[in-house]
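Lab channel / #folding
Pinned by the channel admin:
"Please post every new chain as: sequence first, then the structure tokens as a reply. Keep commentary short and put observations after the output so the thread stays searchable."

First post following the new format, from NK:
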Amino acid sequence: MLVVEVEKKLGDFTVNALFASEGGATVLFGPSGAGKTSIINMIAGLMKPDRGRILLDDLVLFDKDAGIDLPVWQRRIGTVFQEGRLFPHMSIKSNLDYGRWMGGHPADPQAFAHAIELLDIGHLLDRRPGKLSGGERQRVAFGRALLMKPRLLLLDEPLASLDAGRKDDILPYLEKLRDKAKVPMIYVSHDAAEVKRIATRVVRVEGGKVAATGGVELLS
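Reply from TO:
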């Protein structure tokens, strides 16, 4: 279970988030500028809250009162951003293996084979990122994050840079990732149709605060 109780002041804007996720795909849904990415960044360790705590199962990621703030590399969280952020000078195989290396894990051919089958990227392994479509790059980014063997996946609007056709192509892979990888996901989006496909739980964020939590009925 992920428990988030944080507050962060960003100029004149304050993010004050309180929610829990028990697994599956929890979607932070709301308009642009609502504070969704700031919440993701605090969970990942890329932004330090002013106060509060973040717990992931039995691991305390952040606790202001206890003076705990685990560095990013100790949190065992895989993060995928809008652009994928692959290394352009490395092959797809090397980009994928970088996730395993960053996680500090020995080579695991079975896990590697499972990831490439799940995301249908085996035919891309010898290519460079510049030779891939936007949807293919994002699938590789999902695979790299998964091969870190994370306790949690954070997906920050991973389809935002794709056109409607490519979104439709990649959504089935996200559904497979949710259902078969068995890694809990926190997914950021402002696209209601996308959320309906992905979410097992919705956290609606408005003006830096959690306005409601529940199912996809919150989208109406």
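NK: The mean pLDDT is 92.
TO: also worth noting, The longest strand covers residues 2-10.
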